[in-house]
Amino acid sequence: MTLLTVHGVSKSFRGLRAVDDVSFEVAEGSVLGIIGPNGAGKTTLFNLVAGALTPDSGTVHLGGRDITGLPPHRVAAAGMSRTFQLMKPFASMSVLENVSVAVMAGGGSRRTARTAAAEVIERVALGRWRDSRTDGLPTAALKRLELARALAGRPRVLLLDEVLAGLVPAERAPAMDLLEDLRANEGTTLVFVEHIMAAVMRLSDSVLVLDLGRVLTTGRPADVVRDPRVIEAYLGEEPVDAEA
Ligand SMILES: Nc1ncnc2c1ncn2[C@@H]1O[C@H](COP(=O)(O)OP(=O)(O)OP(=O)(O)O)[C@@H](O)[C@H]1O
Question: Which residue ranges does the record assign to the ABC transporter domain (predicted)?
């Protein structure tokens, strides 16, 4: 069943078409990877889908409901959350308090929020940092906190903006395991923007390639990385790096 349908969305910034007539569908429980060169429009597309920006044209439907132009908190209430490339947790608060705030944003009392937050924190293996202030956290833990905050609202669709960036290779495999586990055990539908091709190859059911704001192609990962247009626009002449 199709859960997320993006139809013909466009967005211009002072004449520059950052996203130009982009359409795609994501089936419930599946994983879509979005790749493309710097400036291709990936983050803008996320902002359009998650409600941070309103499209100039086009529509976004979640579970059959038109959510085009809804603000982010209403998109989250409708079942779709996102992570940010630049993480901005409340520095002076603990991990538990940060995730509790995210739970409360979706409704619920302070007491039930702490219980729900503690569960999410265990879910993303952040337990040892639970009571630590977030300004002292290493990058890998901050990334997990960002994921925990997005998961706090129990989304059906999770939009992940470069959650592996900044992790050393040894930290990437456990992060990918976590994403696979979310999908396998909770049926969470994932849409992720990622530059690390090994992750795109491992996690995605299908891959959408953006270039100059437009969809260059979409298909199975193994087919997309062999597409000469993708190699020219994005991957270069180098063979795809399979190291995670
Ligand atoms: N708020 C804005 N105002 C003006 N131009 C913008 C704005 N946001 C994005 N752009 C421009 O839109 C284009 C697409 O940017 P976007 O950040 O969406 O690309 P991206 O694919 O996410 O890039 P990266 O991989 O570097 O994160 C770029 O040319 C960018 O300069």
Answer: 4-237
Residue 114 belongs to what domain range?
91-154
The interface predicted TM-score (ipTM) is 0.96
Written in H, E and C, the secondary structure of 82-112 is ECCCCCCCCCCCEHHHHHHHHHHHCCCCHHH
Domain boundary among 137, 154, 171: 154
Ligand 1 mean position to 75 CA, how many Å? 22
Per-residue model confidence as pLDDT tens digits over 197-238: 999 999 999 999 999 999 999 999 999 999 998 988 887 755
Pocket of ligand 1 (CB under 6 A): 13, 16, 18, 36, 38-44
Residues 141-184 have pLDDT tens digits of 998 999 999 899 889 999 999 988 888 888 899 889 999 999 99
Q: Which atom of ligand 1 is nearest to the CA of 213?
A: 14
Alpha helices for the chain (secondary structure H): 42-50, 72-78, 95-105, 110-123, 139-151, 169-186, 197-203, 221-224, 228-230
